[in-house]
């Protein structure tokens, strides 16, 4: 089933205790699309500048990713830089340059408008809403990610966009900031009054939690001895989650639980190396092997 994503395609500057890169290909939609393409066909909407070369675009080639909706405009590609703490659990943003995204007016290719699954990856909330409204028939699942940058600068626009989505997928600090609640279950209740019926809280090395009217489901993060760079782990989680749902064509409780596991699997691969390096070399067989490992990791008898 078709999965549409809009979000940043970017160059990132990353500093972690394991190394530093000044300019690596990244962006929420890039990580999402690559991760999701292991499970389903992905239609990408975004914009890059004229500094984005054919070599950069190679990341989307040979995968099930349609880039008809990736516009190229004069100017610079979105640039973000961040620095991680020693234990990789905290990150500070050093730079956010919207560049070509500041004036982006997306126009969906005709075939994208039939998408049944839509993911509004991290980008300006009015842009997310614009893309969602161009999809002709109400998607089976519309999910959204955002971050403190948008929660703080464009809160009213974000609230408006949230009215139209089914699943909100954000990290724990964003959950607390958006809801003004410290406790994640109380935060979920509050967020349900904003529109979404389900909340997925991404909790870094502590895994992820799905809250909906049926209750709570938790998955751990895959225990890694040598994590290197958490950049894009949340977007890769979302790619695994939405990619699995779209591939399965279902969103019952079993499918949602499996989607949580595949999300965690994809996030865990991303942190193993810098930027997109691990996803570039990843094989489908490795994904399924790790999902089986997850099953063993979490089984117990009562
Ligand atoms: P994650 O580590 O999953 O939270 O996502 C990291 C990616 O998000 C990076 O590749 C950045 O290019 C992108 N990013 C950072 N800040 C923003 C923002 N304000 N809007 C859109 N994308 C962003």
Describe this structure in words.
This protein has eleven helices and 13 strands. It is an alpha/beta fold and 302 residues long. Strand 11 (198-202) and strand 12 (208-212) form a beta hairpin. Strands 5-4-1-8-9-10-11-12-13 form a nine-stranded mixed beta sheet, sandwiched between helices. It has a four-stranded mixed beta sheet with strand order 3-2-6-7. It is globular. The site of adenosine monophosphate (AMP) has 17 residues, from strand 2 and helix 8. Adenosine monophosphate binds next to strand 2 and helix 8.
Q: Identify every distinct bound molecule in the structure, by name, code or SMILES.
A: adenosine monophosphate
| Total of DSSP H or I helical runs spanning 4+ residues | 11
Query: What fraction strand?
Result: 25-35%
Outline the biggest β-sheet: 9 strands, mixed
Shape: globular
What is the total tally of β strands? Answer: 13
**SS-derived structural category:** alpha/beta
Cross-sheet strand order for the largest sheet: 5-4-1-8-9-10-11-12-13
Helix % is 25-40%
Q: Ranges with pLDDT <50 over ≥5 residues?
A: none
Gyration radius, in Å: 18 Å
What's the helix-strand series?
Answer: EEEHEHEEEEHEHHEHHEEEHHHH
Please tell me the overall pLDDT: 97
* CA distance, first residue to last residue: 38 Å
